[in-house]
């Protein structure tokens, strides 16, 4: 009889251990499932969206609204010298350069922003328009880096440079091209004659040293339509001053 009771006790212990193992496995499964669901929910968070760039009463449509492109990865608001500034950071996706170029064109041609000279050494562009508040400007900067690009908006004290009225404009783009052509050919600024290069005007006009200018990019003609960048020049509308942009200093230097 004692042996029989011992066997019954052993069987009960085995059943208990089996149940314990099953419970542990179930708990582990529930934990893994919960973690997976939580991770999936995290992955499914709503993406960052900015339909407009706004500083108080000043606003403009965002690059995503205008071009339907741009993967926004961060929004960084901060203050600097009493100014409210918001930085929008975007991932440099495929064809992002086209989106930036289209957005610049939109700012200049449709919203009548003015392109200003940048005082930074980074690859960037600065645009501004008169603010809704007197004696202030609404400024937008586009900075391009290797893995991302940012669009930063702010409202600052200041006034926009005086723009030449289209009706008063007598120095056309063709005039500017011929003027720069003669300067380059006569001064030997470049190794080859001007017509040996490809030249492309900027969209809109820029202000350099307080002067309204045409901007022109010059490229060395290459094979398979792969042109190599040679330099960027500005020609002022009023005094016909010629400036050359330096990527090292971020400044434009007068040549004539």
Describe this protein's structure.
This protein has 256 residues and is of the alpha+beta class. The chain folds into 2 domains: 106 residues, no CATH class; 89 residues. The chain has 4 helices and 14 strands. Strand 13 and strand 14 form a beta hairpin. The chain is globular. It starts with a helix and ends with a strand. About 7% of the residues have low confidence.
Outline the fold blueprint.
Blueprint: H1 2-43, E1 52-55, E2 58-61, H2 63-67, E3 71-80, E4 83-91, H3 96-110, E5 114-116, E6 123-130, E7 136-144, E8 148-157, H4 173-187, E9 197-201, E10 206-208, E11 211-220, E12 228-236, E13 242-245, E14 252-254
Parallel strand pairs: 5-10
Antiparallel strand pairs: 1-2, 3-4, 4-8, 5-6, 6-7, 7-8, 9-11, 10-11, 11-12, 12-13, 13-14
The count of strands amounts to 14
Low-confidence runs (pLDDT<50, min 5 residues)? Answer: 28-44
Q: How do the helices and strands follow one another from N- to C-terminus?
A: HEEHEEHEEEEHEEEEEE
Distance N terminus to C terminus?
118 Å
Provide mean pLDDT, rounded: 80
The percentage of residues in β strands lies in 35-45%
- Which structural class should the secondary elements be placed in? alpha+beta
Shape: globular
> Counting H and I runs of at least 4 residues, what is the number of helices?
4
Helix content: 25-40%
Largest sheet: 12 strands, mixed
Radius of gyration of CA atoms, rounded to a whole number: 31 Å
Number of domains: 2
């Amino acid at each position: 009889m004692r042996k029989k009771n011992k066997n019954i006790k052993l069987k009960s212990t085995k059943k208990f251990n089996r149940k314990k193992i099953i419970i542990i496995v179930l708990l582990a499964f529930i934990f893994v499932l919960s973690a997976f669901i939580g991770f999936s929910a995290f992955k499914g968070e709503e993406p960052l969206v900015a339909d407009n760039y706004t500083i108080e009463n000043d606003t403009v449509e965002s690059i995503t609204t205008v071009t339907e492109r741009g993967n926004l990865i961060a929004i960084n608001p901060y203050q600097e010298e009493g100014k409210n500034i918001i930085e929008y950071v975007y991932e440099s996706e495929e064809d992002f350069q086209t989106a930036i170029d289209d957005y610049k064109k939109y700012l200049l041609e449709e919203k009548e922003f003015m392109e200003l000279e940048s005082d930074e050494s980074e690859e960037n562009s600065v645009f501004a328009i008169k603010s809704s508040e007197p004696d202030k400007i609404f400024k937008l900067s586009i900075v391009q880096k290797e893995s991302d690009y940012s669009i930063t908006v702010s409202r600052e004290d200041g006034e926009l440079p005086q723009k030449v009225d289209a009706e008063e404009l007598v120095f056309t783009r063709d005039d500017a091209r011929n003027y720069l052509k003669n300067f380059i050919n006569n001064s030997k600024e470049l190794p080859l004659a001007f017509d040996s290069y490809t030249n492309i005007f900027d969209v809109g006009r820029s202000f350099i040293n307080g002067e309204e200018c045409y901007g022109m990019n010059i490229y060395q003609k290459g094979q398979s339509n792969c042109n190599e960048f040679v330099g960027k020049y500005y020609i002022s509308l009023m005094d016909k001053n010629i400036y050359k942009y330096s990527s090292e200093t971020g400044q434009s230097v007068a040549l004539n």
